[in-house]
Structures are given as structure tokens and as C-alpha cells.
């Protein structure tokens, strides 16, 4: 048995054969776009031929197209450590942020502040600022990450944070922020796009109020996959969806002139489910559930450890600089680091079939997804980096 076989034997989350991508490729960019799940093609053909083709409009009910956003949401809730009936698949991450920020501001009109941190994902900041433009009396308070806790006060309606910094890979301590926000009466809204499907989240234990996440990164739902929205059960009927669409109505097929919101998480739905995209996303989610999210995180950490061990000489000699103090408790499924000539280095790795991510001006990102990555591939990547940086 070779080294690669031995490594694979200890990596119980490994399911490379269930993805469509070149076997010679080391794919370390799954935090941007997950690879194609092999079962998706057949699923889409069946959805088209056996459901749409045979049942036409009757497929909305007969094949569960209308209930899919809630049913797949319940599957995603298992990855979030959340209760059933708290998660709905719909729209994009940005639209879901817009809905929840507006809804949170309406809970207590005396609170006029959306609090977030500098360097949050740009779209999240854009959406928050757009909400501030609509509500002229609302302030979007953007502070350094180190000042978030001290900035939480009774004026804050909602604390909006990304669980994982998209550049560095640093993970917030979700529970401590939720506790502090709760102590001043503020709601929390988390973007878990860079942690769902790679980290074993526990929304119930950590006290998350609201969350959004995308379907095309670690959930492997494909480009343009729908996002999801989460709201804890006892908050759902308090929130008002600012985009009142027909499928968020209590009785959508009555076609009333007056809007009456549905009860529960369904009130955050707006328009018609995107059936084909939902089918593709479900295949990715099912694959994660089959592997087990606890095991996925465990094996992801093994890949991270192997990479850090291989990179240690470069860090010690100052060739590689991490964006934060890397501790075992604040790592996620990817790491970002600064290096000279990052763009050229990225392209040289690509030429050797190692796909990383480059971000202007000097950042490389490496994702550690054990579903399709082995320890051998990670060690090879670290060795190639050392070679390219003259440390062989």
C-alpha cells in the first residue's frame, strides 16, 4: 500500500469518486465554488424527463417542487445544528440579508443601528448600507473587529457578522458574540457562507438568532445555487418580510389582494422555487449528510495541520505571513496568507494542476475539503510552495 493509499484509508470523509473533476487536479478553491457532484446530471435529467416531462404543471405538487425549499432547508438545518422548521432555501445570500436586516430593524423601532466590522465581505456591507439608504434614521456602524464587543449597546438593532473572514479564514467565536448581543437586547445575523458544510456548526447551543448562507461553496450546489435563510423558531412570527411575494403568503393560491404572511419560516419566501437549482443543491447537501459534518470538520482539520506543518519553514523565514494569529480554536475550512508575487505564484501552482485562489494584491487562499482532498495532495502543495519560494 502506497503513502497515498494509506492517507486515504485514514480519511473517512473522502469521496472523490462522487465528484466530476480531473483526477490529476488538486482542487483547493472549494471555498469559492465547490466541484460538480456526479449525481447531479442524472438528477436533473430525471427532474426534466420524469417530472416536468410527464406531469407538467402537476409536478409542483406531485413531485414536491413547492415544498422543496422547506424540505431541503430541513436538511441544511442538520448541518447548522438547528431545529427543523428553521431553515428555508430561497433567493440569494444578498437578498436574504436584505430581508433579515429590514425585518430586524422593525422588531424594535427604537433601535437604529446595524453593527458590523471593517473588512466584512463587501456585498454584506453593500446590502447593509442599502438598508441604511432606505431608512434614513438608521446608522450602519462599521468598526474594527477588535472594537465589536465594546460597540454593542442598546442602540444596536442587529449585529451582522460573517462567521468566517473570507480572506484570512479566521472564525469568530459565535457563542460569545451572541451572548453579548443578547445582553444588550440586540439580535444577531450571521453569514455562514464560508463555514456551512465544512465546520460542525451548533446554532442551538451558540444562540444564533438569524443567519444566511450560500449554496455554491461547501454545499457544492453549483454556480448560481440558491441560498438559505435561518431564523430561530421563537423569532419567526415576529419578523416581517419586506419583500411580500405570493409564496410568503399564508394562502398563496387564494390570490387575495391583501397580503397575510405565512406562519413560521415560510413567510420569508418570496417567489417561485428554482426547481432545477434546488435539485442540484440537494445532491450536494445529501453527500455532506452521508459523510457526516462532524467527520468532515475532523478531516478538514487534519488537512489544515498537514499544510501548516509543511509551511512552517516558510513562516519561520518570513516568506509567508498569516493575516491573524492562527490558533486551533479560530480556524475554519480555509486559510489565507500573504506572500510576495502572489499572483505569479498562483499561476505557477495552476500550471502544476494545483488550484488555489489569488486575491489582489498579495493574498493566496487554500481550502481544506476532505471530501475530495488527501493529505498527500496538501503535503505536495506545501512542498511545491517551498520549491517555488526557493526553500527546497
* CATH fold descriptor of the largest domain: Aspartate Aminotransferase, domain 2
Radius of gyration from the alpha-carbon trace, in angstroms? 22 Å
Our count of domains comes out at 2
Largest sheet: 7 strands, mixed
Report the principal-axis shape: globular
CATH class membership of the largest domain? Alpha Beta
Give a written overview of the molecule.
- By secondary structure, this protein is an alpha/beta fold.
- 39% of the residues lie in helices and 14% in strands.
- Helix 2 packs across helix 10 (275-291) and helix 4 (68-80) packs parallel to helix 10.
Q: How would you summarize what this structure contains?
A:
The chain is an alpha/beta fold.
SSE topology:
Elements: H1 3-10, E1 19-20, E2 26-27, E3 36-37, H2 40-55, H3 59-62, H4 68-80, E4 87-89, H5 93-107, E5 113-117, H6 122-134, E6 139-143, H7 148-151, E7 156-162, H8 174-183, E8 187-191, H9 203-206, E9 210-213, E10 228-231, H10 275-291, H11 293-316, E11 321-322, E12 334-338, H12 342-351, E13 354-355, E14 357-359, E15 363-367, H13 375-388
Parallel strand pairs: 2-13, 5-6, 5-7, 7-8, 8-9
Antiparallel strand pairs: 1-3, 4-10, 9-10, 11-12, 12-15, 14-15
Helix pairs in contact: 2-10, 4-10, 5-6, 11-13
Amino acid at each position: 500500500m502506497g503513502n497515498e493509499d494509506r492517507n486515504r484509508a485514514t480519511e473517512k470523509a473522502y469521496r472523490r469518486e462522487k465528484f466530476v473533476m480531473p483526477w490529476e487536479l488538486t482542487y483547493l478553491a472549494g471555498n469559492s465554488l465547490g466541484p460538480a457532484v456526479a449525481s447531479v446530471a442524472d438528477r436533473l435529467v430525471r427532474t426534466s424527463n420524469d417530472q416536468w416531462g410527464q406531469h407538467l404543471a402537476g409536478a409542483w405538487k406531485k413531485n414536491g417542487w413547492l415544498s422543496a425549499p422547506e424540505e431541503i432547508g430541513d436538511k441544511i438545518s442538520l448541518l447548522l445544528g438547528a431545529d427543523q422548521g428553521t431553515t428555508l432555501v430561497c433567493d440569494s445570500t444578498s437578498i436574504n440579508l436584505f430581508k433579515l436586516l429590514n425585518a430586524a430593524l422593525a422588531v424594535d423601532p427604537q433601535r437604529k443601528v446595524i453593527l458590523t466590522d471593517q473588512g466584512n465581505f463587501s456585498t454584506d456591507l453593500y446590502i447593509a448600507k442599502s438598508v441604511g439608504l432606505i431608512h434614513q434614521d438608521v446608522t450602519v456602524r462599521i468598526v474594527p473587529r477588535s472594537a465589536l464587543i465594546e460597540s454593542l449597546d442598546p442602540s444596536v438593532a442587529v449585529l451582522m457578522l460573517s462567521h468566517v473572514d473570507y480572506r484570512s479564514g479566521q472564525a469568530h467565536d459565535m457563542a460569545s458574540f451572541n451572548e453579548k448581543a443578547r445582553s444588550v437586547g440586540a439580535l444577531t445575523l450571521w453569514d455562514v457562507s464560508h463555514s456551512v458544510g465544512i465546520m460542525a456548526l451548533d446554532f442551538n447551543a451558540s444562540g444564533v438568532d438569524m443567519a444566511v448562507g450560500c449554496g455554491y461553496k461547501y454545499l457544492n450546489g453549483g454556480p448560481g445555487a440558491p441560498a438559505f435563510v435561518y431564523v430561530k423558531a421563537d423569532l419567526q412570527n415576529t419578523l416581517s418580510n419586506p419583500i411580500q411575494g405570493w409564496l410568503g403568503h399564508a394562502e398563496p393560491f387564494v390570490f387575495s389582494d391583501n397580503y397575510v404572511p405565512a406562519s413560521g419560516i415560510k413567510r420569508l419566501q418570496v417567489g417561485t422555487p428554482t426547481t432545477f437549482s434546488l435539485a442540484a443543491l440537494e445532491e450536494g447537501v445529501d453527500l455532506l449528510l452521508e459523510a457526516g459534518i462532524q467527520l468532515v470538520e475532523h478531516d478538514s482539520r487534519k488537512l489544515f495541520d498537514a499544510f501548516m506543518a509543511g509551511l512552517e519553514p516558510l513562516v519561520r523565514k518570513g516568506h509567508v505571513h498569516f493575516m491573524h494569529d492562527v490558533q486551533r480554536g479560530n480556524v475554519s475550512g480555509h486559510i489565507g496568507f500573504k506572500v510576495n508575487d502572489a499572483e505569479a505564484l498562483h499561476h505557477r501552482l495552476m500550471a502544476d494542476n494545483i488550484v488555489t485562489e489569488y486575491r489582489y494584491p498579495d493574498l493566496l487562499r487554500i481550502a481544506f475539503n476532505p471530501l475530495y482532498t488527501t493529505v498527500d495532495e496538501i503535503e505536495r502543495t506545501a512542498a511545491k510552495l517551498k520549491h517555488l519560494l526557493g526553500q527546497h
